[in-house]
Q: What sequence folds into this?
């Protein structure tokens, strides 16, 4: 009798079960949070969003981080972003949880507030200090003591709604320039009161949020944070590991079960989503990336050194995100102990069943080429890979040619996207 061949060595560690806090997870693959543009204008869950999460779970991923659920109307980042600031959002969010659980995956609610980095017109921006946002250029006034307290309470209320919806854990967004990372950065927190002026005071806002949220999170649920460890604004010294790593220990002591490692305040989108990761000449030719034929592949695992530094200083579970594209690289990260879980966002847009493919013995590069076209349509069109089928590239080119991306307006990709929790965007469901 012929015995089935075991999976290739490069998948063994990825397929091992793991845990974060009290939550058991079937493998080490995590769908990282990403903007989805699939909610209603008021932030309610739609059927296409449920379908996306169901496809990811059935596709074998161990853990899903939701896209950033905005905790307060002033914290919305982009149009059609899912919200968790109202009790009316809970029934729809519960459907996301049910979809993930039906497919065997665990799901954490990513709670965030865009702060000064919101790109939604008409939003009254809030930030620790006044000035212009490095990424958007929009002006914002300094938050009052009352507004800071309102923000903390919004995190707690959102966590309570997440518990009611049945999420397996809470994932606090404290990276890539959003409100909490603004409080942690000496570039954006210029306050001289108890909320700023020293590393200790810059830690106060995230610590207060973690302490209060921990009190409302069930003992059988996890609490982790996507934490920005280093600022990246060219020409300006900002947050460094020497400040952020001691802060990480304080946050663990306050009740966190782990971290997802990321960049903090930045003026460049590419600091957290670098392009063309791992793409050699052959892959460039296969995916019509002719401008990359004579260029070196983009850097893989670009936050790995920060994860390693955290491992050396803090005893906790670490999720590594950022340019993981080869199964061999993922395996090496896990076997070295630099991280406990591998998180990806863009690859799961193109291959929601990537985890099942890995389980079947898939090795080497994922299909995603990190072209970042999907990011160009954030807030305009439902999340999808624009390289498959190929005709989407033509539609993308037409949209750019007509100036749609410059106008910044919300344009539905196809007719039929109804602004209701059950509305169906044909483009989104067909892209899975």
A:
């Amino acid at each position: 009798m012929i015995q089935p061949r075991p999976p290739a060595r490069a998948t063994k560690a990825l397929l091992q079960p793991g845990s974060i806090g009290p939550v058991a997870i079937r493998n080490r693959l995590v769908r990282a949070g990403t903007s989805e543009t699939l909610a209603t204008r008021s932030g309610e869950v739609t059927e296409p969003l449920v379908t996306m999460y169901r496809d990811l779970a059935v596709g074998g991923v161990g853990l899903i981080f939701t896209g950033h659920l905005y905790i307060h109307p002033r914290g919305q980042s982009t149009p059609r972003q899912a919200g968790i600031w109202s009790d009316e959002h809970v029934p729809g969010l519960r459907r996301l949880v049910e979809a993930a659980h039906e497919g065997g995956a665990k799901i954490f609610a990513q709670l965030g507030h865009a702060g000064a980095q919101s790109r939604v017109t008409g939003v009254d921006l809030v930030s620790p200090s006044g000035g212009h946002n490095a990424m958007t250029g929009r002006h914002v006034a300094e938050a009052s003591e009352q507004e800071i307290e309102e923000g903390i309470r919004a995190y707690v209320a959102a966590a309570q709604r997440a518990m009611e919806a049945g999420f397996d854990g809470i994932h606090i967004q404290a990276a890539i320039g959003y409100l909490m990372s603004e409080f942690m950065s000496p570039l954006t927190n210029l306050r001289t009161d108890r909320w700023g002026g020293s590393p200790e005071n810059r830690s106060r806002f995230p610590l207060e949020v973690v302490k209060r949220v921990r009190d409302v999170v069930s003992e059988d649920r996890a609490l982790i944070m996507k934490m920005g460890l280093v600022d990246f604004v060219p020409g300006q010294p900002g947050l460094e590991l020497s400040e952020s790593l001691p802060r990480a220990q304080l946050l663990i002591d306050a009740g966190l079960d782990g971290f997802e490692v990321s960049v903090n305040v930045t003026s460049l989108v590419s600091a957290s989503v670098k392009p063309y990761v791992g793409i050699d000449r052959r892959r460039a030719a296969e995916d019509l990336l002719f401008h990359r034929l004579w260029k070196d592949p983009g850097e893989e695992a670009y936050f790995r050194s920060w994860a390693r530094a955290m491992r050396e200083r803090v005893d906790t579970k670490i999720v590594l995100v950022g340019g993981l594209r080869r199964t061999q690289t993922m395996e090496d990260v896990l076997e070295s102990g630099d991280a406990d879980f591998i998180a990806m966002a863009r690859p799961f847009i193109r291959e929601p069943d990537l985890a099942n493919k890995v389980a079947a013995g898939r090795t080497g590069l994922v299909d995603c080429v990190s072209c970042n076209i999907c990011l160009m349509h954030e807030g305009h069109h439902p999340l999808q890979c624009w390289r498959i089928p190929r005709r989407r590239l033509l539609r993308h080119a037409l949209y750019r040619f007509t100036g749609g991306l410059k106008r910044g307006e919300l344009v539905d990709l196809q007719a039929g996207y109804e602004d209701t929790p059950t509305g169906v965007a044909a483009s989104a469901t067909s892209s899975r």
Q: What stands out?
A: Residues 1-10, 407-432 have pLDDT under 50 and may be disordered. The radius of gyration is 20 Å. Residues 393 and 415 are 19 Å apart (CA to CA).
